[in-house]
């Protein structure tokens, strides 16, 4: 439906740090170097966003930042070539249909971010080419692939033509919302692939399908979903979706059912080396947009740690933190369901409005928890890695790593760390993350993550609360 720009055939590999305009990049020959420029990040924004209300009655620590200040800071970032939110172009210049532009502007977007400016012309070019796209958390990857889905489908054909898989129910639901909002001026029909989304013997006739690998595989098995007319297959959080210890097999099975000429698009904030090879096989000859290892963290997120004396002391420190500080909305990440429930009980006893969410809750419960948290009815969400990725709630200004993230082999997990802390500091907002360590092992794990990412994690005392409050208050304002 849209007039897509014609980009010369060939495969491009560009760095988000490269500030030349896209047309210059796309007209040059195949792989450009991704490592040819030193990155310079803008100084972190000094004022913090605090849009929500507080968990207690005092307003001593953080007040909602006036929307105007947020707008001014965002405008500054979007005009700074070193920011991932920068773009030299307007949405009009990206070849989008007028109906999509209307949807985008209705959402309050004024200018594209760097990933949107770089990725969209490549994604929309004809003939379609695969894409492996990387950009920091909260920089607008969703809009890049949603606008591509909405541009690629033929609305006169009532068959599924674009499929997006995400690792969690919560993220898939969120992507559905973005599709509905961006596509509201198009005749688009989208369906959320959940267990009972289609009746027995019926088949899906929506243009766009969103789901998790599990639910989509189920629909395929039941022949409720045909992938025959698929033009675009998107994996959000692709490194996670391709991880062979996790969702990789299921994603591959779905991929094997799509037509050979279907455009495959992989997006994530992280692409660790161990999945790169598989990603390149999954999306052959893809245009690539990559970040350097030093570019992964978001400047607006200040990182801290609190060194607790023992596991028991962690609960005390957490309780103290929430009783002394006024915090907008926050997410506390823990390793196990059991810990989530235990901490929730303790904080509830202390009078805080908290909820927990993990994979063993019923779907309806999970939806209600997310809706309540999104609406600001609940201020504190305690959860496992189930929502570590992709969840976008602007008002979250604090993330706590109650347990340091580790992988299946109990090794420090820098990718999960980045995704977890990326639940705050979204699209130019500021936020803070606090890691809890409680022994040498947990400290070493955090240190390993810090070394891998080359970031600063600042110590906050647990024995001088006045000092602790001062340090954190600065980051939360
Ligand atoms: N061009 C834009 N102008 C203003 N806001 C935008 C723009 N693009 C995206 N946003 C907003 O920025 C927020 C973050 O976007 P999004 O969730 O797509 O980030 P992401 O890059 O997918 O992050 P993650 O890696 O955590 O999944 C969303 O609230 C989105 O509506």
From TrEMBL:
Residues 89-117 form the DEAD-box RNA helicase Q domain. Its EC number is 3.6.4.13. GO terms for molecular function: ATP binding; hydrolase activity; RNA binding; RNA helicase activity. CDD domains: DEADc_DDX19_DDX25, SF2_C_DEAD. A motif (Q motif) lies at residues 89-117. InterPro entries: DEAD/DEAH_box_helicase_dom (IPR011545), Helicase_ATP-bd (IPR014001), Helicase_C-like (IPR001650), P-loop_NTPase (IPR027417), RNA-helicase_DEAD-box_CS (IPR000629), RNA_helicase_DEAD_Q_motif (IPR014014). Coiled coil: none annotated. SUPFAM superfamilies: P-loop containing nucleoside triphosphate hydrolases (SSF52540). Residues 57-67 have a biased composition (Basic and acidic residues). Pfam families: DEAD (PF00270), Helicase_C (PF00271). Residues 32-67 are annotated as: Disordered. Keywords: ATP-binding, Helicase, Hydrolase, Nucleotide-binding, RNA-binding. Residues 317-468 form the Helicase C-terminal domain. The keyword Repeat does not apply. It catalyses: ATP + H2O = ADP + phosphate + H(+). Residues 122-289 form the Helicase ATP-binding domain. It is an enzyme of class 3 (hydrolase). Belongs to the DEAD box helicase family. This is RNA helicase.
